[in-house]
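INFO  loader      accepted 1 record
INFO  loader      residues=204
INFO  predictor   begin
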Amino acid sequence: MLKVMLLSDRNDNAACLRRALAAAGVRVAAERTARAGPDLAGAIALTGPDAVLTDASAAARGTLEDICAASESSARPVVVFAEDGSRAAMRAALQAGVAGYVVGLVPPERIPSLLEVAIERGAIERTRRVELADARRRLADRQIVEQAKELLMQRDGLSEEQAHRLLRLRAMQSQRRLGEVARALVNGAHGAPGGRAALVAESS
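INFO  predictor   done
INFO  writer      dumping tokens
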């Protein structure tokens, strides 16, 4: 049985949604107002729902962004049940980070599949974000490594291969990423008496 947390600021909306979820065999594990306070992330983590649901009354962009941010730490997708089917409203909700946007009354038998799709979409989006962040980090690391090698080559008369070897040696000895070692060297270049000397001193 799917388990959800329900966020709503209107009792009538919450009651309708609660009845629909019950008819669909979806359990409401926790219910609270949609105002995202500092304890919302903890409440989501404690409840452990499969998804976080909110209604149209809470669908303001700022509120949705706060809800999505609070649910992100627990990797729980946010699904909006709304009456506004305009493209602008949908776009705003998706930009805020929701995984699903459901318009109007939905037959109870369709709710589980809608939630399952949102759960899968949320997982895919999280994977994409992690992959994108990792790709950006690798690109930044490559760029800073090139800067560090250039610094060593200019300061100490090393070849590119020697500079790269020295950076790799320090990375292995300090058990840090090559990019981290290179960034530390470049950031400290203005105060260090010499790039290679600084690396060797650090390694000893």
